[in-house]
User: Fold Pathogen-related protein from Salix suchowensis.
Amino acid sequence: MEKERGTPNGGLAHLPNYDAVNKLFEEGRTKVWPPGSLEEKVQNLVKTWEMEMFNKTCFDDYKSVDLKNYTFSLNGMKPVTLEEKRKLGGGYNTFLQTTLPEKFRVYNPADETVESAHVAFTTAFPRGFALEVLQVYSGPPVIVYKFRHWGYMEGPFKGHAATGEVVELHGMSIFEVDEHMKVVKVEFFMDRGELLGGLMKGASLDGSAAEAAPACPFLTGTG
Assistant:
C-alpha cells in the first residue's frame, strides 16, 4: 500500500492469517446464508475487497475493483481514488478518516503510516477482525448492505492494555459494480468511535492515554 509495488508474496504487503480469522468467523457469525444466495455473494465480494484493500500492495493485483474508476468515501466525506488511498496511508487510515480536531483524535490517521497502522491493529486483534453481512437491501448494480465486524482485543492498542473482550463495528455500505461485478464506487457509513471506544477500554499502560481520553467529548460518538 505504501509504495504500491509488487512483493515476493504475490503483491501482498502483509500475509494475513486466514485460518485464524476464518475460525473466528465461523464461531462468531450470527447469519448463515444459503449457498448461492445474494447475501452470500455480497459477503464474498466484500471480503475479497477488504482483503485487497488492506493487504495487497500492487494495484494491478486487485481483482475486485475497476482500477481506473474506483473511488471510496466514508461518512459523506470527499471520495478518494486508489492513488489518494495510498497517500492517506493505506486501508486502515482511509477507513478511519475523521473530521475531529487533532487534539481529540484517539487514533490519528495523519500520524500513521501503512506499517504502523497495520502493526497497531494486528497486535490488538491477533486473530483478525471478522466480517459478516447482516442484511442485503438491494442487489447489483447498486448493492446496499448492513455489516458487522468483530474481533477479540487480545493485544495492546495505543497505550491501552488488552481486555480479551470482543470489540465490534456495525455500519452500512453501498457498493456500485459494473457489468463484470468490478467495484466502481464504495460508500461506508459507520461510527469509528464504536471500534476505537472498545480498544480504549483497557487499563492505561503509560498513564498518558488515560488522561487524554476523557478530554474528548466525542469518544463514544465519532472518536
Q: What stands out?
A: The first strand starts at residue 71 and ends at 74.
